[in-house]
Amino acid sequence: MRRTITAGIDGSLESLAAAEWAAREALLRDLPLALVQAGPRPLPRTHPSGIDAPAGQEDHLDSAVRELLVGFPELHVVPMCRPGPAGDALLAAAGESEMLVLGSRGFSGLAGFVIGSVALDVTARARVPVVLVRGGWTADEASLPAQARPVLLGLDLDGLDLESAGDELISFAFDMAAARGVPLEVLHSWRLPQLYPYGRAYDPLPAPDAAVLAAERQQALTSALRPWRDKHAEVPLRVRLVAGRAAHQLLKAATRASLLVVGHRDGAGTRLGPVTQAAVHHVACPVAIVPHDHVPEAATVGAAER
pTM value? Predict the structure, then answer.
């Protein structure tokens, strides 16, 4: 795999915002930025310079490269034109990168050549983190005080294999916070297990002890985060254990975040889970979806709604 950050470009405001975010990320990591445009490259213009070309004839790739180099003259940009369907082109580019960045319109779908189901399919099938950036994102938002703009990690302990590659999700979140010099906030949402009566109608059901369950979850969070907390001692860490629906809690917390990090299990197929989809559609800040290994099926009984 090449050490590069890749962004999909199609000329839309959303993809340009994604390219700017990716440029800043590439500079933070001292990596080149690959700009990918799907489909055949437009032919050179043959009309007089005073006459505007049709919108479809514009070379979005060259235009994006010029715009980025004006704002980031030290950036190493690699323009790439990938033939074929957009989904295949983006997946191929993702396979050669550390991270894929795409523009997002939020609830209305994704911009340009990665509309709706194609974008979600690319995000679900990519084996590297995919970051979705809204068209309304601006550099000003990234420059707000660090205390008000942490990296937010939504952590579902039931969905992680903490003994092996499930650590990719936690490691990614710590790395992103460390690179930016901002705090990392870890949010874990849990709910009391539902009780299903059986046997005789008058058999009593034992009431779960919420305090005991919360203490067990807190201990699991502490154990899961300890290796990265030791590795990134410079990253201020805040761990929040909240009761309620995971999607609702994440959406509330993300209003003050600079980046939301959520996971996608490798064994979940080509569809994102409901919590991740809620984040993609409704969160205003950039959202990073990180693939990770899943736990064996028997161990996920009662897992929270991902």
Answer: 0.80
